[in-house]
Q: What sequence folds into this?
């Protein structure tokens, strides 16, 4: 008889634990749903004004050049944002082609504002960024090229 009461007690305990666990797993109706993650321009760099300050420091832009560069960068950023926001049925390849066209247009406009030394510095900065990545090891030396025979 004692074994039967122990078994009943164990089954009752298991049932209670199972009920508590099940109630803990049901969603609370009063808890608010998590807010959707909105990443507006998460894939874009800083705004045009910030970029102009950076380029002024790195390339030594004159005030006149900075005034000409800012609308070029703002236009590029707006075109990129419009492209990403569009509801078109573009393929990834088509999207990348459009992005490249926007970047090339901006580069040509910038080339009309920058002097030869600044163009060279900008090309070096872009090359360095490609090799090291945006958050990569910016201070490391580039690896030596493989010897050719």
A:
């Amino acid at each position: 008889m004692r074994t039967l009461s122990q078994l009943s007690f164990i089954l009752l305990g298991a049932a209670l634990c199972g009920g508590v666990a099940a109630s803990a797993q049901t969603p609370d109706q009063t808890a608010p749903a998590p807010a959707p993650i909105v990443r507006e321009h998460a894939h874009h760099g800083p705004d045009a004004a910030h970029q102009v300050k950076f380029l002024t420091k790195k390339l030594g832009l004159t005030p006149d050049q900075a005034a000409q560069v800012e609308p070029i960068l703002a236009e590029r950023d707006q075109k990129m944002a419009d492209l990403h926001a569009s509801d078109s049925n573009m393929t990834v390849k088509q999207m990348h082609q459009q992005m490249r066209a926007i970047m090339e247009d901006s580069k040509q406009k910038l080339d009309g504002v920058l002097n030869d030394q600044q163009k060279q510095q900008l090309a070096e900065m872009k090359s360095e960024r490609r090799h090291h990545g945006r958050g990569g090891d910016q201070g490391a030396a580039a690896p030596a090229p493989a010897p050719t025979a």
Remarks:
- Residues 20-24, 36-43, 136-145 have pLDDT under 50 and may be disordered.
- Residues 62-131 form one domain.
- Helices lie at 2-25, 48-59, 63-85, 92-111, 116-132.
- The two ends are 92 Å apart (CA to CA).
